[in-house]
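Summary for the funding panel

The consortium committed to producing paired sequence-structure records for every protein in the target list. Below we show the first two records in order, beginning with the earlier of the two.
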Amino acid sequence: MVDNAKPKDLIGQIIDNKYELISPLGEGGMAVVYNARRLRINDEVAVKILHPETTLDAVSQIRFEREAQAAARIKHPNIVTIHDFGTSNGLTYLVMELLQGPTLGEELARHNGLTVERTLNILLPVCQAIGVAHQEGIIHRDLKPSNILLHKLKDGTELVKVVDFGIVKVRSSEALTQVNNILGTPHYMSPEQCYSRELDARSDIYSLAIIGYEMLAGRLPFDEASIIEILQAQVEKAPPSLRQYRPDIAVNLEVAILRALSKKAEQRPSSAYQFAQELLSGAGIQSTSSSTGQLKAKLTSTEILSSIAASANRNTSNNPIKSDTISRRLPKPLPDFNNFVGRKRELERLMAEYQLLTSGKARPVIVLGEKGFGISRLGEEFNQWLKTQNIPVLLTKFYESTSRVQLPFQPWLDLLRRSLGIRRQALAQESDLINITSERLGLTLPQCMFENRSLDEAEKWSVFEAIEAIITRTLSEHHDHLGILIFDNLEYANLSLELLSYLTRNLRTRTLFVLLANAEKVTQKGHPCQEWLAALSRSGGYETIRLQPLSHNELRIMLDGIFGRLEIVERDIERIWAVSLGNPYYIVEIIRYLLNEGKITLQTGWVCENIDEFALPESLQHLAEIKLAQIDESIIELLRQAALIGHEFSFDILEKVSGLNEDELVDSLEKAVKTRILQESDKREEVYHFPDPAIQFVLYEAIPRRRKRKLHLQVAQVIETIVKNNQQKLSRYSAALLHHFYEAGEIEKTFYYGRAAAEAAFSRLDIPEAEKYYLWALSAAKEMQEEGRSPNTTEQAELYLGSARIALHLGQIEKAQEALAKSQNLAETEQNEAIICRTQLIKSQIEYSYSNFTLALTAAEAGLTAAQSIGDNKTESCLLLILSQIFTALGQTQETLDSLNSNLVIARQNKDYLTESQILSLLGSTFGLVGNFKQGFSLIEEGLKIARNNKDRLGELKALERLGKLYTQTMQLELALEAYDCGLGLARSLETKLEEGMFENGRGDIYRHLNEIELARECYQELLSIAHLVNSLSGKALASHNLALVTLELGVYSDAVSKLKSALDQHTKLGQLRLVAEAYYALGSAYEQLGQVEPAQAAYQSAIDYCQRIIHPTYEWQAHYGLANILWMFGQSDEALTELVTAQEIINHLCEALPDNANKEEFMRDKLKVSSLMEDIKQSLET
């Protein structure tokens, strides 16, 4: 046994019949490294062995192995080579190449700071090694000098090696590298590591910058007295100036290191390669980057010293600028605002990603930036470069959902047109593409692509396959069958996210997907792209390029790009940067303003007059006001009308509102386009939009209030004529109609269109908008009543019912009850059975949320009778679903199955995919509870697929919770945790508090299985807090039950008995028989530990009775085992064997029902005690 072996005790031992341990090389908090001999090859290697006392739980063991495998994938001369990994005789080991030489930490201990030459010769290879690791999706997480080895080769030369990839994930709680579950070494940890947040490559870059700082300064930037103070400094304090310790280094080199030490990850270099290039540039060295963005592994001393000397000559003062003017190239006769500048690094990164595609390693690239940062321009420039390389590229953009009709697949039709080289104007109608595609490509486009309606499953997949075929055909023109797809405005891709998922799955090995997005919008809470990106991350990952504000130096380059040569003093550049904060769009607008004001003029060259005393625009809104002041007043009035219509507007609506004839309107719009106030959308020839929201805002706010109301009414009436007698158009335009009538003060119309707008918003789960629209409409109804007008009673009932549904979704139960009562009263006054049955549905859901299952059952049955009597199949299906949930809570298994099977038939007949998804996942969960695991997994996964295919996030939420439970039952704990984590994020984005609590509860169950008791307690406590917040009795009871189990695990048995009795009482009152059975089993365990055998026997027997009554095999076998233990204590061996035989039969049945991919060994781990006790009893009987 090696349980408590010291390092010297293992010397001479042979590990796994392959490695003989010769001598210890070093020891850390978690492992010992030995010099070892490989027996088969007879060479020397290093073997790292985890301390035997280090306790590895199941998940940590899995992750450790996965990380070791990941590190082994990285093949690079500056990364230690991993040879082998395994376990032997209770030891976990890792085999790597044997390195000779000191660590960087030892090197630094001998010197008070290193020369710039020495620093770069070490740090640049480390950057390249880390960059390669990042490309493999591996984050080091624990970069520090002791993990950088200076390996001495036989010829005496030095080779830098990075070690310990991924091993930091399994640090023990005593090790320096873990403080309250924070992985890393505090002196070198990024701020996001200190907060235990999700890490990406930029965390490693921060650590590299700390190392670089220490190498040059001879000290750490943050070296406080305690670990807590160090962590606080990493998060809050700015690092001291590097040049106060090393005044001899270049200013730009200090800037490069301090930028990489930014507290915000997005302000650091985006890659290790970029950081290395900035170090080189800061030291005055020309970059030696290759086409893939990688750097030469090592610069010679001569190269570095000569470049540093040249840099020193150029920087005799602290200012890197030699004179007070910038004059680099010949002046241009006209400013070139289309010159692409300031994004060279990002463009090179995209080029490098294409190079990775040729080796099959490319992943989708998400380019993020704020408005005005040049996201679209970067995509266009990349597109142009690809064309020069004869690389097939298809480019399209997604469109903001507006008030006008838009084909769901419009972006993809645009992509097809561009691939065929057809302008929109050349088509009489979009569907002409069917014949053209057939003739040119031999492919058939489904007619449904050109119809503005929801598609059924078969139609949807036919469209997906057609688009995939088009892209594949286009790419086939390239000899490698490789190509690029560029998508702009990802933030508006709601209708296309499922199709994007389909294409990234099927085409990713031969296609680079580049998706450009507004960072502010896609990172908003609840945005559909967040969920989509999370799914993309789980299915292979993606790369992120985040556009940063332009730096001072990039601003100078931008000015050179615009003018060729511009004489401008440095302080004026500083002022322009300070006002614009590096926003490229803002910079261009300021430059245009200075040109218009005569502050920049063409003399012998372009010259900027001193602008010290000149008032620059203080904001984009101020700029918009200045720009509009230069526009003809006749056009301004038209633009105000356009701004009132909305961000985007059609020619037809503006023509009717303005009263201008067609020629006058065309002329005015052309002038607005030339002055860049408007842009013509390429989506449709007669649609325009405001590229600058500030301009639209200024125009709208300039309209007098009375005039606004009149114009809003005029716009609403124009749109109303468009949607007349067209229900499909009404659904799409309803929000615009409601908005304009509301702003016009037309309360009757606000009341009339409120429900349509609210229901459209709710259908896309835009809950805040739906809530607002219901409020507007109900406020209008109240105002009508105050004026003596009678709003339609049925419509009022519908509005209150919708408000109740929204409040219920948000967990505002009292508000839901209040709105429901009003709806019910109005519906009964009108004797409207259709609304009455739906009020019963909401009432049942409210009572269910309160855990009043009897009242919930009564309401659901009443509603079901009403729905069936009037033939309302959709409501009937919803009522059957809530009935099934009630039966499940009450442990009435057969009733649950009967209700679900009946409901499934109705849902499929009605093609009600949202209800079908929830039925299937609940049906699967029920099968899982009774021990039919294979069927359970199959049904839940089918329900999850339908939910995701139909963008039904509520259905997906339910399916993930049920999938997590089933994974837990079958002891697939890592998969269960993934399902719960995914569901928790989704619940938070949807703001469904009780569901959030249930996912926390599931995570608690996982941690309890893994003996992570404190983590389990935290999760259960979170459920309890949420249950109190939303007043869920069943949530409170479940949390109390599970917190009692934590007490039991901690060995506080008397306290556990008291808490379990309280939980049992709550479950009994609520009628939750499944939890009653589980509580009795836990009580039996607690009594048994206390030695109170008679109460234990009674509790186990009660658990068995309830388990058999509701079919709960997962707990029944445990109760039989517990009872057998008690009977054996009483000397009743035969009776004990009978209980054990029953338990074993149940276990065998459960094992047979496992899906093929389940780990049967893990599943059986806690069940082996049954056969073991059976053997003990049999042996005792024999003796």
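The next record, for a separate protein in the list, is shown here:
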Amino acid sequence: MVRKTGTLLPALLIIIHTCTGANSLAEQHNPDMARAHWIWTSPSPTAIGEWECYTRKTFDLTGKVTSAVVLITADFQWPAGVVFVGDYVPLVEPANFTVSVLGSRAYFEHDAACPPALGRRLYKLVPAKPDGELTLLHDAGTGLVAAPCVSWDGSTVYFSMVKAADKFFHVYAIGADGSDLIQLTHGPYHDYEPAQLPDGRIIFCSTRLGSRDEYHGNFASAIFAMNDDGSNITPLTYHIVADHEPKVTAHGGIAFVRCDNFFERAKVETRIHHIRPDGTGGMAVLGPDRSAIGFDRTFAAERNSAWLRQNGFGSVAPLADGRIAAICQNGLVASGLFDSGTSRFEKAPVGFVPFDVSPLPDGRVFCTGPGRSWIGLIDWKTGKTAKILSLDKIHSAVFLGSQPRPPVLASQLPAGAQNRRPQTGLLLCQSVFDTKQTNADLSSIKAVRIVQGKPFTLRSAMHRFDHIGVEGIELGTVPLAPDGSFYVEVPADTALSIQAIDAEGRSVINETTWIYVRPGEHVSCIGCHNRRASAPRSSTMPMAARFAPVKLLGRGTPHRFRANNGGNGCALNLQYDRFREAAAITLFPVTAKSDGSLNRSADIVQLSEQLQSADVLERTSAAQTLALLRDRSSIPTLAKALEDASPQVRASAALALSACGNRSAVRPLLETLDDRNVFAAQAANIALENMTAHSVGFNPFMGRSNAGKWQEYLARNDWEAIESRLIRMLSSRDAVVQLSCARALGHVGSEDAKAALREFLAQNPNASLRVMMAAIRSLGHLRDAQAIPMLTTIFRNNMTKDPGKAPDLHELGWLQRPVYLTATAAEALGRIGSGDAVQPLIESAPDLLDFWKYTFWCGDHSWLMGCQSSPIHYRILEAIDRSQPGNIDPIVPSILKSIPIDTDRALLHETDSYENLVARVLARSSLYRQVIETCLAVLGDTDAEPAGNLEEAVTASAPAISVGPHDPQSRAAQIISIVCLDRTYARRLWDIFNRYRAMGPSRPRSWVCFYTARLLGRLSDDESIDSLVAALRDDAKEASFGYEDPPNVFVYKALTPFYRAAAAGALGRINSPRAIGTLMEALTDYDNAVSVRNAAANALLNLSEHVDADRLDAIAQTYPEVSTRRTLLQIRQRATLSKASPSP
């Protein structure tokens, strides 16, 4: 279709636009704009050779408007051409969820894997002027087109399209004359938003990562590159949420929108990010630059720092001068010059917010007007806006014509095939103390922990909001150098979080942005949460950089947990520590020791044995786990580990002693000050400082001449003198001093310390929450029997205490104080461990509130409060597990009801630590088998012998407001999958599994099959293999139910959870070679859901000693999904490592 556009324009149009509505997004995010009145005028053909165009309007808050007329002369430079999208198709719920910024194409949140602006037709206008020639390039009919871009020579238009009746967006190319439509990408993935690199390759967004984003469980999108014929598709970014709208900058880099979520919903916002074409050099170009976060010590709660849908960007437009423009809540803005070193941005001098923008080679900007009824030109310098075309439902205008090709930037990656490159990079921080977070206790920061965010592939709920988070994996901890620097080697292409921690391993400041390094890349920063505009200090080399980087690679058996914050924030508050412990995955195993023991004492014995194993990685992991458990009984083994041949083991053992040591640990720590490894020596120094609340200025990074100062200090001050000093300092008004002294007394105190701590708690009921918790814990560590009445009172007075109305947003921790006082009192009573200490907890348990009341008070959103464990219940179970209590039968129902449900959180192929604690505690009860039999009865086992008084307990579900609670059968299946540790039930369980498999699709069927398959895997019963194999081989594959129509947050129509993924995972845990053939078939059949194929790959990883590693390696080289490909490559890596003997 070709038509002249002059007839489309009205002679004169006066539009008066008023932003109204007290709750409108515009008023919420820009009150000045919301109260403004603008007058817009359209081009008028009455002036021959002249056009009246938009210009910036001035206004005051009373609504008075002034306007100006700008005349465009006949020699005005109209662009050579423009390509745009017509017949706008809105993104609507429930299939999509997008929170727009001021009605533009920018967004705070965009859930669907597709461009944020869609249409049906692709047009060009040549020249790009009101009387240019309008041509229809492509009509998608009932399909969708979006996100056009033009090749550098102007001959080809690349765009996103899903054809009518197709189910996935793909990248297409078409000649600028409308000829030669070519589909470049294929497969069951959404590929969209293409752009051409200077070297001719095409970059685009894609769901080929094969993992789900941490917020709503939708498929994550990253940036990929391919040849211009669609071959050689490789990832450039590995972001675990979403990267959108990649555009090439004038310098040859790539700017794009990054969805910058963290720990599920701790933070939900977008920013403009920049990378080199090889993915290196990642940095934020435009985004929120928060000042110091407010923090209240009494509540240990953050002030509201606009974490949730308050900062949004979109419509990336790299300008010709190197700046990057975009739309945000401040309107149309641009970054400072790319290499100027400034974080300031410039607001465009226009009096309206465009729907979208794109750059022209001459520095001007194409825009779509509000309402998507016209496209025009913006002169950035003057703010003058010239309208080009008026037509309803148009958007996404881009320049059509030849333009200067940016320079081709050489790759910074090591040479070689992508899958054979080094899989690590380096992180150097100049000083964590260079930070804006001055409300944190900076003097308490002693080390840095690096946490990996590993995305999930399973989706639990068939609901557009499925809050799954990520799996947090602790890669390791490094002591800080005295100048605050650290230098570490970390996994490449992996989401990483930096956590500044105290000497006991608890968080002080948490970095709330995922960072990445590419293979072989060296990434450096000035500080944590530092001022963006600050320049590196012109001082000497950071102390840590004087030595080889410490390897923090998460090998061995690292600590894992549910990184799934149901609230907001977590930069400074207690949420991070809560999920690290109460939502752990790897603590408290449920495999009994050789003597049948299954409790805390057995855990310490097992970890102590692991600390003496031949595998250096396992020794390191054991020390790090003991640091988390903080159990005094591990001191002798940890002290011995200070002599280990591995410096990383020695450093980890010293840090563990910092968390759990007492006076007996001091002598071996003093000897470690002379360790030849500076990090081990510094870790020992940290431990000594923590146990004495004193510093001697020890600095092994600059020589060890001051190592003797510790011996001198301890020679001058015996333990009585040290304790007396700590007791005096406990009365300080400084909360930081109080905290350090309360902790130190718990390490080295005697009877005097116990009395002082009891008095402090009695006299200071309103002290800082962290100080109160430290003092309570110290009484537990000191096993103060005289403190039992006080601790019991604290527990009972707070366990049902209503915290009242939150002074600020409750999701930031403002209601948590009574919950943490109760939980910490339970922890202390458990550490005392006597019958007198633990019995009050057992007696009080039936009187506790529903567990989700406590999670809500801890900050969890009301939708999510039933899906995470309560700190109070966690500490009670831990206390019972640690001790030898009496009859616990009366509290069995309340224990069962305290188990969170899985419908709105991540699904695991294993049980988590809270669930394992439940199983371990219930195994001691005489009701253990009755609980299992009751669950079996609910699931239809006619041979079951249920206990009628337990049926309500095994079927009662916690609330899940958005996705719904569990039905009775699903809940009973969940309970039995947690508590059953007896393999003799396997036959009855796979009978249930097969019976439910034979039913028609339903939500209960999916959940029951998922839980029973998972349990069969844990029981490792060989007779279950046939049923699990049959589920993979014979049951309907997920794709057979069909795919959803895009745009959509869902891909598969099949009901979740996908139980066949659990069957694959179970086969891996049973670890029988009989399953290899079926798993290989599942891996390579793309009608299986991504999660099923990923589970099959992980099962094969468990079976790596039995599989053909070369064959799997060959499959990995061309496997389309990154998450599964990485697992397959691990098999080769594991095979290689197994041939090499471990070295220290």
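Regarding this second record: The CA atoms of residues 555 and 572 lie 28 Å apart. The chain has four domains: 2-287+303-399, 418-554, 784-981, 985-1144.
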